[in-house]
Design a protein that fits this description.
The chain is mainly alpha-helical and about 425 residues long. It is built from 17 helices and five strands. The protein is about 50% helix and about 5% strand. Strand 4 and strand 5 form a beta hairpin.
Length: about 425
């Protein structure tokens, strides 16, 4: 961290610069439109002064719109052109702390600087204010809409810099009454997974779904992931239905052997009974059945939704491995069998909907002026102490790449479409600022 040379965290809720006091190798520091009110930790960063004199267009200190700019003399120091802004701001901090000023080689202070700083606000005239300085141009970000509700289905956070599913445990009172059925289902799911493992080359997607389901059901009831079981179980049920119908559409490999089909149908029946024992799963089933009736929406979201679901399943840089494994059975079922005709379509919808909501909330943000992605997209920068920095680097390109598909996908969901539109506008504003 001490070797960091460029750090930009514009438009964030950062208030404290103390962690920067030891970053003596910094050459460029930007925190426009932040809540910073104390620049004291920057007094020792004389490298910023030297760098600003060496190349005023690239290096130096930039803090337009930060809270400190409401406090004299920083309200006027911020208006100086580079390199004067950096040199004089840091020297003012050094003077306040009883330190000698640092005058970089080749630096010439603006004429009448001291008179300018000492004059009253009514008497003060602009002094070498550089309104062409890109960083003095305010980054005009649109105000965000209300954060969409978390909604039903899988929820997501960030773990190890990647999008990660958050398990949904059953209620305490639901655990005991499910134990007997759970024991039988766990046994039969393991048998199904083992049988399909031997036939994995013939039924690869079904085999993976059975394996993932067996792993989910293996844990104790109290530790079960209800939404994960419901989602993967929907995929397994969808495959079971299609194989039972002898794959009339010819999209699957070949019919199952009778013994294997019987075992699959047995697990699916037990799964249906098991998840009905949880309030959360019953609610999801009701919603899924209603969702399946909306043929217009299913038709309109199928193409865009499949592309986004593919990204949430295959992008190793963006989604952590266990979460991708949960998504894969749903993705496989959607690709093989489509969005209509079973509850798996709603499973896929919730993965995309809640995954995108989390992606925006955890990268672009949810507060006004929270699009703190400029430095990350430009490369070579980091958000000080932000554990989500790696996630942001991976998530932002996904949002940009699939922007048009996301708008199509959420055409029937006004709150999510407004949220996506806002995020894309923020990213576009950041992109314009980067290119200035």
């Amino acid at each position: 961290m001490k070797s960091l040379q460029t750090l930009v965290f514009n438009s964030t809720m950062v208030t404290n610069l103390e962690p920067l006091s030891g970053l003596t190798n910094l050459r460029a520091l930007g925190f426009d439109d932040t809540l910073v009110r104390d620049l004291t930790p920057l007094a020792s960063l004389i490298g910023l002064q030297d760098a600003a004199v060496a190349d005023q267009d690239v290096f130096g200190l930039r803090f337009a719109g930060a809270s400190i700019t409401g406090i004299p003399p920083f309200d006027h120091l911020v208006t100086l052109s580079q390199p004067a802004r950096t040199v004089e701001t840091i020297n003012e901090l050094r003077r306040q702390q009883g330190l000698p000023p640092h005058i970089p080689e080749g630096y010439e202070p603006p004429a009448k600087l001291q008179d300018f700083l000492k004059a009253g606000s009514e008497e003060r005239e602009p002094l070498e204010v550089d309104l062409t300085d890109d960083y003095l141009r305010p980054l005009s970000l649109p105000l965000p809409p209300n954060l969409p509700s978390a909604g039903p289905g899988p929820q997501y956070g960030v773990r190890y810099g990647k999008l990660s599913g958050v398990p949904s445990a059953p209620a305490t009172e639901e655990v005991d009454r499910q134990k007997a059925l759970h024991a039988r289902l766990k046994r039969d799911a393991a048998r199904l997974a083992q049988a399909l493992r031997r036939a994995g080359n013939v039924y690869p997607d079904l085999a993976f779904s059975a394996k993932e389901y067996a792993e989910l059901i293996e844990v104790e009831v109290a530790d079960a992931d209800v939404t994960g079981l419901w989602s993967v179980g929907n995929a397994l049920s969808s495959f079971a239905q299609s194989y039972r119908q002898q794959n009339i559409a010819r999209t699957l490999a070949e019919p199952l052997e009778p013994e294997l089909d019987a075992l699959l149908q047995n697990v699916v029946r037990q799964h249906g009974a098991f998840v009905m024992g949880f309030d959360e799963a019953r609610d999801l089933i009701h919603r899924a059945d209603e969702f399946a009736l909306d043929a217009v929406r299913l038709h309109e979201i199928s193409e865009s939704g499949t592309a986004i679901l593919e990204e949430l399943t295959e992008n190793r840089d963006f989604v952590e491995e266990e979460t991708r494994a949960l998504h894969r059975p749903v993705r496989d079922s959607i690709v093989d069998l489509g969005w209509a005709g079973s509850r798996v379509g709603y499973s896929a919808y919730l993965i995309v909907r809640n995954g995108v909501r989390a992606m925006i909330r955890l990268s672009v943000g949810s507060e006004p002026n929270a699009g703190a992605v400029l430095g990350l997209l430009a490369g070579g920068s980091a958000l000080t102490g932000d554990p989500n920095a790696e996630f942001i680097r991976a998530a932002i390109p996904v949002l940009q790449q699939y922007g048009s598909q996301l708008l199509v996908f959420f055409n029937h969901s006004p709150e999510m479409r407004a949220y996506v539109e806002w995020a894309l506008e923020v990213l576009e504003a950041d992109d314009r600022q980067t290119k200035l």
